Amino acid sequence: MILEILTPDKKVYSGDVLGVQLPGITGLFEVLDKHAPLVSALGKGQLKILKDKNSTESYKIQSGFVEVLNNKVTVLVEGCE
């Protein structure tokens, strides 16, 4: 699936991934390949990307939203480190 992480200033990440773990406002949740359509609010916390079976990448994000549609995950956040 395709993952894009966007802030008001720039595109932080864009690429093909196996999955992504996100900090929802009520707790962590994970989106994997071919996930059902979803829109959710995000809280402050760690966003973890599963790039392949042996490689992960993490970002600290501020609040925002995530949209999952047609095997593409778009994360819109206020800030990202």
Draw up the topology in text:
Blueprint: E1 2-6, E2 11-16, E3 19-24, E4 27-32, E5 38-42, E6 45-52, E7 55-61, E8 64-69, E9 72-77
Parallel strand pairs: 1-9
Antiparallel strand pairs: 1-2, 3-4, 3-6, 5-8, 6-7, 8-9
Pfam families: ATP-synt_DE_N
GO molecular function: proton-transporting ATP synthase activity, rotational mechanism
Membrane topology: Peripheral membrane protein
Q: Helix-strand pattern, N to C?
A: EEEEEEEEE
Q: What is the H level of CATH, i.e. the homologous superfamily?
A: F0F1 ATP synthase delta/epsilon subunit, N-terminal
Structural class based on helices, strands and sheet pairing: mainly beta
Number of beta-strand segments: 9
Low-confidence stretches: none
What's the CATH architecture? Sandwich
* C-alpha Rg (nearest Å): 11 Å
Biggest sheet: strand arrangement: 2-1-9-8-5
CATH class assignment = Mainly Beta
Can you count the helices? 0
Strand percentage, roughly?
A: over 45%
Q: Terminal Cα separation, in Å?
A: 22 Å
CATH topology: ATP Synthase, domain 1
Share in helix: under 10%
Shape: globular
Tally the structural domains: 1
Main sheet overview: 5 strands, mixed
**Average of pLDDT:** 95
